[in-house]
Structures are given as C-alpha cells and as structure tokens.
Specification:
NOV_C, 5-stranded mixed beta sheet, Protein NO VEIN C-terminal domain-containing protein, 2 domains, 24 helices, alpha+beta
Amino acid sequence: MAVNSQFLFFYIDELVKHHWVDWLEGPLAKVPSEEHRGERGFQLAVGDTGAGPRTRAGEAYQLGILSGRIVRPRIAGASFPSGWQAVIEGRVPSTKLGYYSYVIGRALRENPSDPNLDRALDCLASILILHIGFQSDGRWFNTVLLFQYANNQLSSYLGRQLNDDEVRYLAAAVINTLDSEENDLLLDRYVADLPIESLRFDLNDGKSLHFDLNGLPDIVSDKKVGINDFQKTKAALFWADPSRGIYMRAARSRGIRLIQELIKVDQRLAQSGESNLLNEVLDSIQNNENNPGIFSVAEDAFTDFPGLLREWQDLEAELFDATNKAVEAVDLDTAPPIWLASQHEIRGSVPAGSDDESGSDEVDEVEAETAAIEGSTTATDEVSIASGTQEKKPSKKIELPTKEALREFIESELDEISEAPPVTAAPTEVSGKKGKPRATQTDFAAKEARNRKLGEAGEYFVFQYEVMKLTAAGRVDLAKRVKWVSKDIGDGLGYDIRSFDQDGNEVFLEVKTTNSGRATPFFVSNNEVAVSEEKGDSYRLVRVFNFSKKPRFFSLTGSLSEVLQLEATSYRARVV
C-alpha cells in the first residue's frame, strides 16, 4: 500500500524560531478567554482561522514538540484537541523536546549568527527527524533510516559523499519510491539488508521514471530531470536544502551517528518481526493521543543496545551543552517567565554524560577520607560492622544559618568575608600506615538532601554578598542585575551566579561550600573545567568554608586546570 513518508511543510528553523516561540510566549502560556475555549480556540487566539496555523500546529505535534494536539485534525471521530484542553486547564502542552526547541528558537531570534546556537539547532534536527515515519503492514519505519541506507550505498559506490544536488535528488527519489506501491524497490531491501537496485521519480506530468541507484549522479549532472520536475519537490527541499533542510542539519550533528547505529538495530528488529523502538511515541502521535515524549521513551527503549544507547546519550548531552549557550544569548533581565520555566523543564533530569553535580557541593566522601587519615570522626551517619556487631555512631547535626542571619552577617562583616586564596604548597605527605578496614552503611538520600541544602545555602550567601558589595560600591544598577542562575534556570551551566565587577564586566561564579576548613578538598566537574577555560579571567571559583560557624570564602580566577591541582577520582563507565 502507498504511504506518506513525510509531512514537512516548513523549514524547522522557521517553525522553531518564529511560530513556536510566539506560541509559547503567547496563547500556549496563558489560560484562554472564554470565547477561545472551543475546538478552534488556538486559531482564534493567534488571530488566524485559516489553514496556516492549523498546518503548522499539526506539524509541531507530529514532530514531537507538543504533548497533545492544539487543533483538532480533520479526521472522522477526532476528539477535542487534548493539547488545547491542557491550555484551558492552565498547563503548557509542551514536551521536553518542545522546551528545548523553544529555548534554542528564542536564543536564535536574538543571536541568529551564533555558531553555538546553530549547532544546537542541528542537534535538535537529528531528534525531530526521528518522528518522521510511516506504517507499512502494521510496523513503523523512520523515513530517515531508509534515506540514510540509500545514501550509504550510493556514497560507497561513488567512493565519496554526495554533493548537495545529489542529496536533493535522492530525497525526492526516496520519498517518491516510499509513497508508491513498489515496496520491493526500497523498503523490502532495507529490511533484508540487500543492495538497492533502482528507485523512481514521479514526475509532474504524471509519468514515472525508474532508474538505477548508481545512475543518479548522471541524472543530476546531465539535468535529465529538472530539480522541480518531480512530485513532492517541496518535501525534498524541506528535507535536503543545503543550509536549512532537516536532514542536512541532522547530518551536520553527531546525530548522524545515532541514525547509522539505529539502522543496524532497526533492520535486525524488522527481520525478526519486532516493533520499531520508538513505537510508543509514533503510535501516540498517529492516534492523536497524548505524546509521552521521546526523552521519556528512548533511554529505556535503547537500553538493550549499548552502541545505540551510547549514541543517544552523547547526542542528548551535546544538545544539553549546546543549549547552555542559549542562556547567555538571552537577556536574563528581560526573559519571559516561560523561558525560565523551560530551562527548569530541561534541567529537571540532567542527561547522561553532562557531568553535572546536581547541586551537591559538600563532598562527604572526600571529607570522610580526610577524617580517616587524620583519625577524626566525620559528620555523616554510619553503622560500624567491623566487629560483627552493629553500632550506631552518633551523628553530628549541623544547623545551617537562616537567610535572615546570613544577610545580617554579610552586612556586619562585608569587608571581612572575602579572604586571599591559600598559597600553593607542596602536597601533604600521607602516612603509609593503613587503618583497620571498616564497612559502613550510608543513607545516600539523606546525604544528597543535606549536601543540596548546604550547596544552596552557600550559593545564597555568595549571591547576597555580590548584591551588597555592588550596592556598597555605588553600583545599584549592577546589583539589580546579579542573577542566581542555578536557582532561576537550573544546573549544568558550569557556574551558579552571574555577577559584575565594579566596571560593569560580567563575572561567572561557581560556588563550592563546606562546613569544614579552607583546605578541605572538593569536586569539580569536567563541565566546570571546560566552562572555566572558555570564560577565562571572567570565571571565578568561590570556595566558601566554615559555613555554619563563621562563613568566609576565597576566590580563584580563570581556568580551573591552572589554579587547582586536579586529581581523577571517578570515571564515566560503559559496558563494552
């Protein structure tokens, strides 16, 4: 049976930068008035009841950025659009992919030439394109996998990558072939992992042209078929435009590695009669149901395929990293509430490989190691099992100062809080004498909560200090612009506070807090090291110590690899 192998009606940069941003900052971010609560409420809210908003809204849903339709599709029996119902109930009908799309689109509107944001859009394209698919004999297929399969074979025959015109023609041929009745030309050969012998062009004059796959370059160079002579020519354009096509964008990102890995897995599954790994997402969209979102499905779906899972995690980590650049592309002082809410949605669960610390700045493991060397006790709850009997050791309960107490303390000791950093000295020699091994049981949930609370308190302390310092220096204008970004936006930026020096230059502060002394070791992440190198002298690591007693801090400026002695304490591990 014939299928519809794609549904692109716009360039994705147009959809993301313009329509999606306008919707999330407008009709999708507020409860509609009474007259806009019907089936056509979204179209009425945007002021256009024509086909344009309906088409764009349908594409947004099918690309996976909407959790439910906001316009009822023109099919028999379709129910009230669940996405618009969510808006009526005060909920934003965006998936996590939609929030990523909004943040990237919003930043690109303000900085369209930023290469980091362009990289983010390329990563986004490689995830959006996974939603473009069709059903054949009850099984879902991703159009991009079949296209890449044909691309791989032709590239191998030519001994080179296809040029832009060849990719455009190949896109038209794959779409025309898939949408025909001739499954044996491409789909059946993809499933069986056999060479593709021929494809077809469906021409505007109603004729069809079959040609050998390896003969495509001659058709392109000889202009035997004009680039606008085949049916669905716009589909091929939105797919393969050299600078804006969704496939061309995906191919520029590391998402192409995910696509290549997914081909191998999907072929094995298809050969054994098993479903597409993204079946749940594709099914829900096809049936006009609430979309669970690809991020909530992919990790579990790919878990039995280590190579595929690795590529997905690396792609998600790159998207997360590239999206961080959007934070500095948008003015934090004027960002709309939905922008901040989107950042929180993205950072609600940090992607694998992003190396985020989840706000934990007090390092119990390091302090426990230090205490064991020095023969002292730690502040963590432990159960000693060394003698065969369990003995609960008393826990040192440390009360953190209140916010009011911290503000009063800063006001009274503003000039005394900041200290010079320690003078670099030779590493302390640790005695080779080993203590008696002991087994411990640690309440990790309680420890994480304790660390997070301490980390947030330390960040609040430094945030208030920066505000008061600038105010005391007569720079109230700058004091009002200091942002506690890890609280307002979320973790993973590589710094916690954006502040200013007295000359108005931005500085980026990463806060590490401990209740122990100034020499206590602490953890820094790969991301923080990388960001410190990128920011250079505008980066500060602020080490807060003796926090619960008499808080003080010192600052280290610039690349962390130059101002700290870094030691490897853990590895990112994968099953080989």
